[in-house]
Design goal:
With 308 residues, this protein is α/β, with parallel strands linked by helices. The protein has helices at 54-63, 75-87, 105-115, 135-138, 167-177, 197-205, 229-239, 254-264, 279-288, and strands at 31-32, 38-39, 68-69, 119-123, 129-134, 153-154, 161-162, 181-185, 191-196, 220-223, 243-246, 271-276, 292-295.
Length: 308
């Protein structure tokens, strides 16, 4: 009869507290998710529809971790969640959502509710900045059919700044002029970006946030191994996902390794695969091209994978 070797899970091991000279504030919890993505706390959310949507992903990234948007929805809905996280804050919003002066107040209200923003640059032909419109401008407007041009702050009364304005300088301009949003324009008057007071304050409040090189919050997204996995992955990459997580109950399968190869063809976006519980499984996924490997099957308190 073969001898059964000792196997331990996290619940079977206790760490005995020891004498330490390290203060809590001195502890460094920085961890590498992949070679190119660092986290300030070692926390990655489960790609479950009861756990990870845009609000959780934003909150977790602000604290230094990363949320993984679940795939139990349409490609369009999942991509929209990723985009919401990436647009939630930025050092400079290089592609701000804009409106036209010919749109109506009713349309503006719908866009504000849909996007979760209260202020938008108004642009014309070829991206020329024509003004700004905010929730304050339409708060007491009863006529939803009125044009945005009737309520917006026109360009000649708008505070703007050159496209290369530094954040410190932008903060001074915002404070001096008692405004919340600063449009950035090039020498031809074309809108090139937007800096908001809210984003600057978030940078001060959430100093530990996990961000990409553009100052946007990190966000992962899950894909399956079904027929639409490549289409879904491409849409998520286009929306700004920092990493793709292959979401499979059992990661040590030939199909998962095939999907890793397919997703690698999309570009430089990291591909994280799993879940596995053996050294052979981890090694096979790495050899297939995985940037990182998820270890452990169903360890969460609400997971039923082990039971199933």
């Amino acid at each position: 009869m073969a001898q059964i070797s000792l196997g331990l899970s996290f619940d079977d091991v206790l760490l005995t507290p020891q004498m330490s000279a390290v203060l809590p504030g001195e502890a460094d919890l920085k961890s590498d998710l992949t070679r190119d993505i660092g986290l300030n706390i070692p926390v990655v959310s489960a790609a479950m529809d009861t756990v990870s949507e845009s609000d959780l992903a934003i909150a977790l990234a602000q604290e230094g971790g990363i949320g993984v948007i679940h795939r139990n929805n349409t490609i369009e809905d999942q991509s929209a969640m990723v985009l919401k996280v990436k647009r939630s804050e930025s050092a400079v919003i290089h592609e701000p959502y804009t409106v036209s002066k010919d749109q109506t107040v009713g349309e503006l209200r719908f866009i504000m509710n849909e996007q979760g923003f209260s202020g938008f640059p108004v642009v014309g032909a070829e991206g020329l900045l024509e003004g700004m419109v905010t929730g304050r401008d339409v708060r007491h407007m009863a006529d939803d059919s009125a044009k945005i041009s009737e309520v917006m702050t026109p360009l000649d009364r708008l505070v703007t700044s050159p496209e290369n304005t530094a954040l410190r300088e932008a903060r001074e301009i915002l404070y001096k002029n008692r405004i919340e949003k600063l449009p950035l324009i090039d020498k031809n008057g074309i809108l090139t970006g937007l800096i908001t007071g809210a984003d600057i304050e978030k940078r001060i409040t959430f100093t530990n946030a996990a961000k990409d090189p553009n100052g946007q919050l990190r966000c992962g997204a899950a894909v399956g191994v079904g027929p639409d996995c490549v289409e879904r992955a491409q849409a998520l990459v286009n929306a700004g996902a920092d990493a793709l997580f292959i979401d499979a109950a059992t990661g040590h399968t030939s199909r998962v390794m095939e999907v890793i190869t397919q997703l690698r063809e999309l570009g430089d976006v990291p591909v994280i695969a799993g879940n596995v519980v053996t050294a052979d499984g981890a090694e096979d996924l790495v050899n297939a091209g995985a940037s990182a490997v998820k270890v452990g099957v169903g360890p969460g308190s609400i997971c039923t994978t082990r039971v199933i």
